Structure prediction request, 718 residues.
Amino acid sequence: MSDATANGIPASGAPAKSSLLTQDALMRKRNAAEARFKAYGIAAIALSLSVLFIMLWTIFTDGVSAFRQASLTFPVTLDAERLDPEGNRNPEEMARVTTIGYTNLLNDALVAHLAAEGISTEGVDDGDIADFISRGTPAELRDQVLADPALLGQTITVSGFASGRIDGYLKGRVTRETAAVDTNISVEQLDLADRMVEAGILTSGFNWRFLTNPDASDQRPEMSGLGVAIIGSAYMMLLVAIFTLPMGIAASIYLEEFAPKNRWTDLIEVNISNLAAVPSIVYGILGLAVFINFAGFPQSSSLVGALVISLMTLPTIIIAARAAIRAVPPSIRDAALGVGASKMQTVFHHVLPLAAPGILTGTILGLATALGETAPLLLIGMVAFVQNYPAGPFDGGMLDPATALPVQVYSWASRSDPAFIERSAGAIIVLLAFLVVMNIIAIVLRRRFERRW
Amino acid sequence: MDDLRIVERSVDTQGFKITARGVQVYYGEKHALKDVDCDILDKTVTAFIGPSGCGKSTFLRCLNRMNDTVSIARVQGEIRLDGEDIYDKRVDPVQLRAKVGMVFQKPNPFPKSIYDNVAYGPKIHGLTRSKSELDGIVEASLKKAALWNEVKDRLGEPGTGLSGGQQQRLCIARAVATHPEVLLMDEPCSALDPIATAQVEELIDELRSNFSVVIVTHSMQQAARVSQKTAFFHLGNLVEYGETGQIFTNPKDPRTESYISGRIG
Ligand SMILES: Nc1ncnc2c1ncn2[C@@H]1O[C@H](COP(=O)(O)OP(=O)(O)OP(=O)(O)O)[C@@H](O)[C@H]1O
Ligand SMILES: [Mg+2]
Prediction:
């Protein structure tokens, strides 16, 4: 033990005595540094959580009213003379009566009903009362009558949407102060609305049609819905998954497990990382040039949207899948090769099952990002006003014009009527709900695969 | 060196199983194995000894071309198995590895059930025609690896849930199950207790009747106990290769002499 000093340990001198019950200065300093670090971390998390909470709270308070809608319920006598002047109940001839005819019928019926109920219409004329009825309601009644001419002559109870301003009044968006400066609504109309609510003619309920209706024009915000956008987004996610999953996973397996490590693969690697960082709008321009102008695919279609979004999602998926494959310990590959498995068997029997949870999570998160992507879709025309539902998935529906949820948010937010702003926030809630569902699927799949070992 | 129980065993030279000539291995710039000539006999246990980092594992991995998986590794020279050059372009390393099995330095069971770990090799090589035959191989292999009694009631549990020593024996069972002609073992007993070590040594001795076994070990006692031939590596050179008894009692090279007497390494 003569060379102990060489290691810096004093050969003689016993170690300095110190109590375990008191901390020395160095220990205190280290503990203080640790406590500070933890405090920074907690502060950062608290800050981000509160910002997230504020964001969700504003969206929720602004958007939840989009799911409620004011409706008017009153009896209408379907006057055969007005709706079927020829009198032969032939829907083709009845179709000559336009929505204007039905609008007048409904207006008269509402005025008559108010009179019958004894509701005072002081300060408002018949035209003002007609403003209560949504412009979408006559069209709906017309469709109903044309589908079932036997209704003519009967008195039915119509339950149609109230117009946007009246709806806004029930939700608190329109007040007497705003009505005073609004040419579309008067304070007297609001007084009448109060009386109609009391009489049970004007009611408010959950609005399923916000989820099913297509978009509507500026004059009828209350009729607009997310139906087309939801179908468009669903088609796009389906196609994106079909395009990117097999390709992305195959590419990452090849690059990780089979490709030789040389200058070419290095170049490919750098390019994939760079592609993941390219602004999405650039992909939109590319899609416009390649898929629409060159390949001639239909504008505004889910197919083109999906192709563009696939291009931008692919690098993300490849990077995530490669990271998951790389995380599989090399000893597992050695073990498989050591018992004489081929490269392919090694990858498919041992590496992929271990990498699957990571690949799946990465892919679903990539798809979730894709779901919220807006900019490239604007360029390929998916921001268009689409009033017809796309056809079913097997009837070429993916070639039909459609919009997507984030694009619908954008286009509603840019319209002037405040009723659309509310709907825009409502659409964000739907979009977030989709994202939450996708993330839950990712978590469940991850758990399911990981629990195996 | 009095504690070494050196048993002189008769070595029946049925001929060479593996002949290596002028083997050089580079890891990038690093020259890890320098001009190694070595003949490994059939039905014999050959021990590789030497200080850490001297290239024992490297040479072992040349024998079943596991070095192919290291992208920076370069192997030169000639290695023949039964007279056929294993680095010939026509040789598929997958076929080679079915003949030359390997147990790695660190236990690396598949994250699958114990049964699947052992059954995997026979399955992919199509060694069995029925489930019962496969069961038979699994049981026999686990018995050879002295693991059967510990796991026979829980074959469906994950192999990764076993203790380190049990995992290593599982890896031995997995390697034995494919019926290799040569079994390469890289420090198979480094994680085992003396009882399991004795069992594995017994297995090695048993395997000798059918295969040739190459074992890397840091325990000179073990080398002396189980092997008939011993090779001493030092700094990438094969310094001395000969009968185990001769290496341990009468080494020709001064470096061997000082290593086995504990002065280098
Ligand atoms: N994959 C690798 N990349 C680079 N160098 C390596 C690699 N594997 C081994 N080497 C180097 O080659 C030399 C020989 O290594 P090897 O693993 O053969 O030693 P060993 O004799 O098995 O040692 P030990 O007894 O510690 O296992 C070492 O110097 C090591 O640093
Ligand atoms: Mg080694």
